[in-house]
Design a protein that fits this description.
The structure is a single chain. The protein is about 35% helix and about 25% strand. The protein has six helices and eleven strands. Strands 5-4-1-6-8-7-9 form a seven-stranded mixed β-sheet, sandwiched between helices. A two-stranded antiparallel ribbon has the order 2-3. It has a two-stranded antiparallel ribbon with strand order 10-11. Helix 2 runs antiparallel to helix 4. The protein starts with a strand and ends with a helix.
């Protein structure tokens, strides 16, 4: 897979994880590695540069070897604050990048062709930005944004806007549909996110089942 030289990315890992009992849900163990490691593994090869959007103590993400970007908007303003900080980072640090992809840090099964399909949708529609859609609905946190949109976003944040979906809709984002993915013999949403302990348990079970199936296939060769 060739990275897209003009697309940088930010993994949004600044959520409060209240339904997981606090802490960083993206650091929860999934198949022996942090959830965030799975996200990075799938997204990183598609991009020219990648960073993590997170607040508080950055040292907890040091093992990933990526830039850590804190919100510039105070008060835990949500994903839009992460996008805002990410656009500023991409403009100053990701040389040659004209667009920024954002994904959630708790979505370990992201499509390997996420960026490619986003770019194809922009080319087909002539729009400037897009967000992901699946059978479960729209996922506005997962999107492709032109860096030039930073000024519009800052103005929207100054007006008190905090909903990523509302901002994307106002900017005329095209919704790009992604079909279900197969994992462990089961069809799942490609943007399956780990919000609760039971989500983490299911993700671990699916990966375990997939690993068992792979071992059986290898033994039959």
């Amino acid at each position: 897979m060739e990275p897209h030289s003009f697309v940088a990315g930010v993994v949004l890992a600044g959520g409060r994880s209240s339904r997981m009992g606090g802490g960083d849900k993206c650091l929860a163990p999934l198949a022996g590695r942090p959830v965030l490691a799975h996200v990075i593994e799938r997204l990183g090869p598609q991009l020219s540069a990648l960073a993590i959007s997170a607040n508080d103590e950055p040292a907890r993400f040091a093992a990933f070897g990526l830039p850590i970007i804190a919100d510039r908007i105070v008060g835990h303003a949500g994903p839009l604050a992460g996008l805002h900080a990410g656009l500023a980072w991409a403009k100053s640090c990701a040389a040659g990048a004209s667009h920024l992809v954002t994904v959630a840090g708790d979505t370990p099964f992201l499509p390997h062709d996420l960026v490619e399909r986003f770019l194809a949708a922009l080319k087909e529609t002539g729009r400037e930005l897009c967000v992901a859609r699946s059978a479960e609905g729209v996922h506005p946190v997962i999107g492709l944004w032109p860096i030039a949109i930073a000024g519009d976003l800052e103005a929207a944040l100054d007006r008190g806007l905090r909903k990523a979906g509302a901002f994307a809709e106002r900017q005329g984002a095209v919704e790009v549909f992604f079909p279900p993915a197969e994992l462990g013999g089961r069809a799942i949403d490609p943007f399956f996110n780990i919000n609760r302990p039971e989500d983490l348990a299911l993700a671990n079970a699916l990966l375990d089942q997939q690993a068992k199936a792979s071992r059986i296939d290898a033994a039959d060769l």
